[in-house]
Request: fold
Amino acid sequence: LSWPHFGWGALGWYAALLLRAPVVGVASLLKVPESTLQLVAVLASGPCEEGVRAAVLFGWPGQHDLASAFSIGVGWASIEAAFTVVNAIAVAHLMQQKTEKAREARQQIRKVYGDGYLKQSPWLGPLERVSANMVHISFSLLTGLHPAVALPAALAHSAMNLSVVKAAKRFGLPRTECAFFGVAGVLFVVHLQPGASGEGLSDLRTVPQQSQSAHSTTSQAVLQLLP
Reply:
């Protein structure tokens, strides 16, 4: 694990978070319905995160070899996990409040995530984090192949987030998080297989030059598939 790249991944996640604010702000100024505003916030996550991820990986030479991409993905996932822990503490505190603002906040959470969010089992939070971490590492390895991959990755990212939100309302959080874990697990394993992103997880223990060479070979194969 490269700690400098870990740090760049954490900063990248924070930059993507900041980028979503003006997008939602513009939608608010246009006075769109609340349901549309929520949809905009969810759909903006893919372009913002994958655009910044590509910038972090390809902003300067030596950032997108396999070891660096993996470290950036871990850093990206870790800072989001820390943010989620803080958010969970805030929600737990919110549940104990009896003020009007707290009631309105709980109602807003139910609109976005469904009635089960505030009554979820304690194990769903860690399960969701493991799934999200696998997704972030997978997208970092995938986007590290070539900057052009950021576009389909952004579409897939937004589609995945929207599907989770919709499924949570329809099928409940337990089923949704279990399904999300399955999809994330498959995505993660595929990207760590030999030939998927360089030579797989074993390359993380090799020197950066070897990792770069293997990753570049896969990048050339991907370029041949791009229009």
Summary: Residues 199-227 have pLDDT under 50 and may be disordered. Helices lie at 3-29, 34-58, 66-96, 100-113, 124-143, 150-171, 173-192, 208-225. The CA atoms of residues 12 and 55 lie 9 Å apart.
